[in-house]
């Protein structure tokens, strides 16, 4: 039996274990789920060591003697104390520093976020699409303006904003469903190919 066939049979077995959840929760599904989590964690640790720790911590500090980086490295490693009951309080320091950084960075990032979006909305209304985008933007913003009752002509216009949001959320949900269906089709295609290869 070739290595390719063996690996394909193992993949088929675990695929069927995952599909068995469609019937009910069972030991095969739980085994496959826990194995996936364990393998992902192991891969993530090795990947982080090779692609993050070595190039961004070990090489700059030890090999290039860039000693300033030792402070953020130690601060980042304090996150690991989250797994200790007695020393978990040490993990609060990097969280506090990151929150301070986010708190200081968000006001400075207003230009990158809000102002850029405003500039993109302030374009000449030359096409039907731009007119629809402009009307949708105004209607959605007014929908969250709670100081005025949603009645009369204003209420009808605000209702248009609600429809814009519903269409947007529906499209996002549809994309999520299509992504899951695409994964399912890929697994089924894999099973068909493997069983065809065995024959």
Secondary-structure map with pairings?
Blueprint: H1 3-19, H2 27-63, H3 70-77, H4 92-108, H5 110-121, H6 128-143, H7 152-198
Helix pairs in contact: 1-2, 1-7, 6-7
Relative helix content: over 70%
The unreliable regions are none
Give me the number of helical elements.
7
Q: Given the C-alpha coordinates, what overall shape results?
A: extended
Radius of gyration: 27 Å
Instruction: Note the main sheet.
Output: none
> Average pLDDT value?
88
The count of DSSP E runs of length 2 or more, i.e. the number of strands, is 0
SSE-based structural type: mainly alpha
Name the beta content range: under 5%
Compute the separation of the termini in Å.
Answer: 14 Å
Order of helix and strand elements from N to C terminus = HHHHHHH
